[in-house]
Amino acid sequence: MIDSCQRNNRPRSTARRRTALALAAVGLLAAAGAVVLPVAASAGTTLGASAAERGRYFGAAVAANKLSDSAYTTILNREFNSVTPENEMKIDATEPQQGQFTFTNADRIVSHARSRGMSVRGHTLAWHSQQPGWMQNMSGSALRQAMLNHVTQVATHFRGQVVAWDVVNEAFADGGSGARRDSNLQRTGNDWIEAAFRAARAADPGAKLCYNDYNTDDWTHAKTQAVYNLVRDFKQRGVPIDCVGLQSHFNSGSPYPGNYRTTLSSFAALGVDVQITELDIQNAPADTYRNVVNDCLAVARCTGITVWGIRDSDSWRAEQNPLLFTSSGAKKPAYDAVLAALNGGTTPPTTPPTTPPTTGPTTPPPGGGSCTATLRDGTRWGDRFNSEVTVTGASNWTVVVAVTPPQKVSATWNGTPSWDSSGNVMTMRSNGSGNVFGFTTMANGNWTRPQVRSCTAS
Ligand code: G3I
To answer: Signal peptide position in this chain (predicted)?
Structure first.
């Protein structure tokens, strides 16, 4: 349905014809019982915007002490819509003395990100490495209890602010054994991983809980299979787990494997999201970056990519120049390849929606001032969908959109969002990116269309 006010006011533009074609295509596909919907019409100009139009995030690992570097924050704020604190949420950073928690640096990153509409991945609650001295010296039930208390306290502090947690990091051994890594945590008993996940779920029921590891990219490797078996076992027994993080640090000794897409899709088939959590590639070959992005786009439950740093000089492996920006902040060929892949990526296969998608613009309620906001449906996946809002009548605008709980907005583009305390009402302000903004909604089982509540010119 198109309301008369909208029909009268909208010019016969190319965009309108494109919209009409897209809507017609939706109708044809729906009539044919197809489940693949058209991709969003526009091409983003930044990594975050382009990924969001694909229903995904594009993030970076961020260091708190670089937030005062304007060259750094200029790229961060322009390009990325997700952030992972590189070190500031680790055990040694957040609980340097037992029972004394320090969140200052992590809070700075979270605040920087959320005030700009970026989501936050939490990294990491339980790990054999980066333990503070007091924890390194513990064992047995005292260590188990301390670990669970740490998980509980940290996840509670960030409840509602972190969309996904790397609950447990790097718990499997390298090599061909497929065994757990020996560590003080492992020696508290084989069930330490599931105990950590249960504690994290209890502390923040809204966060996605991930297992995160490296050298788990090649489907044939014993370590990959071991993590796969852990996730399958957790799903079968009802241990809370929502996602698997593949760190994906690629280099000559641990190259990008040709079966990477198989690995992503195999994990996804277990009923978990897959996230590429720490991507960097030695010498940043454009082809390999492109392959990684296309592999993620080909798997509906590959929900986002994080690069482990912004400029080469920010990398933990700076000598390998493995990132998307030079040390002086210039875009590298790998950047162009990633952006092009995000913009040209194929529509991912979807699982059939439980209800048919709705199409056509909504009618905004009256009283929104002298601008009009029209929402139309974008791409839809098995667990989430995009919406685009076109504003007419103002170049500086504020649009209020509401989603229906338990829906959650997971990504936005072309605007500066803020949320009310419920997290269900989003206020989007123009940020100079034009008059069309978009967002991704995690359905969480509810496919109700988001509602435009008001449009105010400013
Ligand atoms: O900030 C201090 C500085 O004050 C001090 O002078 C200096 C002396 O060593 O250390 C500095 O801290 C270092 C910190 O990075 C910040 O640069 C630590 O020593 C160093 O151990 C730490 O390394 C981090 C590493 O994890 C260990 O936690 C890297 O930045 C970080 O990129 C890396 O990230 C890991 C992921 O968490 C898990 N996956 C692998 C990935 C790469 O190793």
So the answer is: none
